[in-house]
Each structure stands twice: as structure tokens, then as C-alpha cells.
TrEMBL record:
GO terms for cellular component: plasma membrane. This is Cell division ATP-binding protein FtsE. The keyword Cell membrane applies. NCBIfam families: FtsE. Homodimer. Forms a membrane-associated complex with FtsX. It comes from Paenibacillus montaniterrae. GO terms for biological process: cell division. Belongs to the ABC transporter superfamily. Gene3D superfamilies: P-loop containing nucleotide triphosphate hydrolases. It is a peripheral membrane protein. GO terms for molecular function: ATP binding; ATP hydrolysis activity; transmembrane transporter activity. The keyword Membrane applies. Residues 2-228 form the ABC transporter domain.
Length: 228
């Protein structure tokens, strides 16, 4: 699903974020990306959904060479990649339903399809009964569930989750992780960056550790391995 071949990323200010990273993530895997702050995790994630392009090397997502995509094809690729952020990034003036439906409207899906699919994913994340609410009327955990619903509404092949439990209390974090695990079980590849040692150690998925722009550990059923 995701392949990086000798990926280097250097920013305009000279900061070296990734140094010759090569990795393969198979379809339907659940992978934790761990490491200290500034290690290169965010850059790794941004390369997957084409917010950044590599300085050197090649990255393939679902068979497409992301770095060499023409600008007009980027929106098409992003339909197949759902992104979940730590700070939710919901549109405050739109209802729960409208926030999720917006992702389908962006690809010009038929109205009847939008309504049916939006209600389906809201039911999956346990928020169908709050479809008329606004983000300000929801708890942090509920807002993150809406964010996840928005990320999966277009049936993406991959979900990139950047610290999705970072602003949540421990119990709510566990609920969000069970939801992501269910989505993964249904066939979606998930790559999640996190500092949450307890979640990583309890769920025992594949762990890729990055330090100073290098992959220093890649373990199936791994543990966090860093002191927070």
C-alpha cells in the first residue's frame, strides 16, 4: 500500500527531516509511528498524503508515485487517503452531518449517495443521533469521532492519523483506538503517529520508530520503546 525508497527530505531552512528512509507498509496493516518530538514523524505522514514531496527518493501510495504526480491528479489521490488530526479541524459553522458530507461534496458525489453514506459512517462512529449538532456542542472525543467519520466517508484505502488521541483523556483515547481498530478490521490501512506509550504497548501492532530522521526500529507486535 505504501512504499518509500531512499526518501530524503530537507526543508528550505536547511532542516533535515528524513535521511534515506526506506519502508514498505502492506495493505490492511495497522502501523504506529513513534519517536521523540522533531524526529521526522510529521514529515513522514505529510509525504504520504502529499502535503510535502521528498527532496530525493520515491514514495508510492496505492500504486501511485506521489512525488511525481501532476497537480491536477493530487485531489484524486487524496480521495483515497483519509487524514485525522490531533486538533480535529472541524468546520465550526457546519453541523456534524455537514462536516462529514463536505468530504463527499468535494468529489461531487450524488446528493442521495452523500446522505446515505454520511449517515452510515456516523452510525459506525456512534454519532448518528447527533447529526444536527454543531462541533461546539460535542465533547472532544465526539469531535474526534466526527473527524474520523469525515476521514473514512469516501472509503479511503489509507488513513493517516497524526496524534489522534493527543487532546483526549485516557478513557476516550481507548474508545478512539477501538474505533480505529474496527476501521482497520474492515480493510483500511492505518498509519498513526503517537506519543501515547500505553496505547502502543497495549495494542501491540507494528511499530516503526524514527529518530533524527532515521528509522531505528521496525518491529511487528512492537512496543513504544521511548520514555515520554
Amino acid at each position: 500500500m505504501i512504499e518509500m525508497h531512499d526518501i530524503w527530505k530537507t526543508y528550505a531552512d536547511g532542516t533535515s527531516a528524513l535521511n534515506g528512509v526506506s519502508v514498505k507498509i502492506d495493505r490492511n496493516e495497522f502501523v504506529y509511528l513513534v519517536g521523540p518530538s522533531g524526529a521526522g514523524k510529521s514529515t513522514f505522514m505529510k509525504l504520504i498524503y502529499r502535503e510535502e514531496i521528498p527532496t530525493k527518493g520515491e514514495i508510492f501510495v496505492n500504486g501511485f508515485n506521489i512525488g511525481k504526480l501532476k497537480q491536477r491528479k493530487i485531489p484524486y489521490i487524496r480521495r483515497n487517503i483519509g487524514v485525522v488530526f490531533q486538533d480535529f479541524r472541524l468546520l465550526p459553522k457546519l453541523t456534524v452531518f455537514e462536516n462529514v458530507a463536505f468530504a463527499m461534496e468535494a468529489i461531487e458525489a450524488p446528493r442521495k449517495v452523500i446522505r446515505k453514506r454520511t449517515l452510515e459512517v456516523l452510525e459506525l462512529v456512534g454519532l448518528k443521533h447527533k447529526y444536527k449538532n454543531f462541533p461546539s456542542q460535542l465533547s472532544g472525543g465526539e469531535q474526534q469521532r466526527v473527524s474520523i467519520a469525515r476521514a473514512i466517508v469516501n472509503n479511503p484505502a489509507v488513513i493517516v492519523a497524526d496524534e489522534p488521541t493527543g487532546n483526549l483523556d485516557p478513557d476516550t483515547s481507548v474508545e478512539i483506538m477501538h474505533l480505529l481498530e474496527e476501521i482497520n478490521f474492515r480493510g483500511t490501512t492505518i498509519v498513526m503517529a503517537t506519543h501515547n506509550k500505553e496505547i502502543v504497548n497495549s495494542m501491540r501492532k507494528r511499530v516503526i520508530a524514527i529518530e533524527n530522521g532515521n528509522i531505528v526500529r521496525d518491529v511487528q507486535r512492537g512496543e513504544y520503546g521511548y520514555e515520554i
